[in-house]
Design goal:
Layout: H1 3-21, E1 34-40, E2 47-52, E3 64-71, H2 84-87, E4 91-95, H3 101-110, E5 115-119, E6 145-148, H4 150-163, E7 168-172
InterPro entries: PA_dom_sf, PA_domain, PRADC1-like_PA
GO cellular component, one term: extracellular region
Pfam families: PA
């Protein structure tokens, strides 16, 4: 039971299970999800869902228990970064737009970033995952590239601004099957 919220959470659990447990026919790939948890600031201490790029970028061979998630400056990361020194050995939070997903990933890689999380530039997007695909340049990128919902990216950046912080601290990737409270730790704005 638990009223309407309980019902919404149950529907969401069933939907997640259907998406993650169904075996696609004839090689159609359903999104694989990757999860990360914000550890600080505390007001956004949630588990976020991202989708890996479809046909470029590396994979996480290491679990980072505490790594910085640094918003790129400028946010679209289509060229030289003003805060590139802070992205070295950390993970960059980048905004969609201005250049290809691959170009952004290469910029972060060139600045020594371990991975890039690209948030949709539609701040109200709280449900639609974009497939990030290779651009036409035949270039490659070796670091993982993830797509994040616009609402999630906006809420993370807004929290950092409110606290005057240059970055968040995150764990990535997080194995949600080992966290019984996973449902309770999702951002409240994602419930439907």
């Amino acid at each position: 039971g638990g009223g309407p919220l309980g019902a919404a959470m149950l529907r969401r659990s069933l939907w997640l299970c259907l998406c993650l447990c169904s075996c696609p026919a004839r090689g159609l790939r359903i999104h694989e999800y990757l999860y990360f948890q914000v550890l600080s600031p505390g007001d956004i201490r949630y588990i976020f869902t991202a989708t890996p790029a479809k046909d470029f970028g590396g994979v996480f061979n290491t679990r980072y228990d505490q790594i910085h998630l640094v918003p790129a400056d400028p946010p679209e990361a289509c060229g030289e970064l003003n805060n590139g020194v802070f992205i070295q050995d950390q993970i960059a939070l980048v905004e969609r737009g201005g250049c290809s997903f691959l170009s952004k990933t290469r910029v972060i890689q060139e600045h020594g970033g371990r991975a890039v999380i690209i948030a949709d530039n539609a701040y109200d997007n709280d449900s639609f995952y974009i497939e990030m695909i290779q651009d036409s340049t035949r270039r490659t990128a070796d670091i993982p590239a993830l797509f994040l919902l616009g609402r999630d990216g906006y809420m993370i950046r807004r929290s950092l601004e409110q606290h005057g912080l240059p970055w968040a601290v995150i764990s990535i990737p997080v194995n949600v099957t080992s966290i019984p409270t996973y449902e309770m730790m999702q951002p409240p704005w994602t419930f439907w």
